[in-house]
Amino acid sequence: MRYYSYRENEEHRTNRLPVAYYLVNEHHPRYEMTHHWHKEFEIIFVRRGNLSITLDEEKFELSEGEMLFVNPGVIHSGNPHESEYECAVFRLEAPLRQYLSESHEGKALLAGDRIFPPLLLKSNKTAATIALRLLEAMREQPTGFELTALSAVAELFGLVLRNGLLILPKNTSGGFAERILPFENAVSFIEEHFSEPITLAQLAAT
């Protein structure tokens, strides 16, 4: 039950866009990142200083210019050290979910059986470039930034699937997939097929 108490209830969106952007520094009320989790993916980029991040029980030390990927359902917290950092929080919605569900690896990602490597954006320059483009679009918000942000998210997932970069989650017992994802997948199926008749058998298969 303690896991549920850490859930962040804030909806992360920018108008109709399923992506939210946060610039966090010493003046931000959530400068110290307390333990929490959410159903969205998240990219964290250190603009200045250093940031100590804990994902579940694994610790990471980020320096200026480094990024970390946070998967859905992962309890995370952070201790900044004279730091300024950016966060892009996003969720998968149709039609991207539909495209992912058409491949084996995509289905595994949606089910929580495969995850993004937390240090992918540190080790893969192409992925890092895409993530920076997403952050820049959300930070600057020029005309058409919504399309730039959405295309960056799609490109990032395409890169990971194309190159087989997903990994097995370390916690395979009682993790996010077993606790939350069956409900999330059912809700997403309903949202995508709301205008059609839906059976219990279809929901059970999501």
How would you explain this protein's 3D organization?
By secondary structure, the protein is of the alpha+beta class. 37% of the residues lie in helices and 24% in strands. The chain has nine helices and six strands, in the order H-E-E-E-E-E-E-H-H-H-H-H-H-H-H. Strands 1, 2, 3, 4, 5 and 6 form a six-stranded antiparallel beta sheet that branches. A hairpin with a 2-residue loop joins strand 3 and strand 4 (58-63). Helix 5 packs antiparallel against helix 6. The two termini are 25 Å apart.
Q: What are the key terms here?
A:
206 residues; alpha+beta; six-stranded antiparallel β-sheet; 9 helices; 24% strand
Shape: globular
Mean pLDDT across residues: 87
**Count of helical stretches:** 9
Question: Structural class, judged by helices and strands?
Answer: alpha+beta
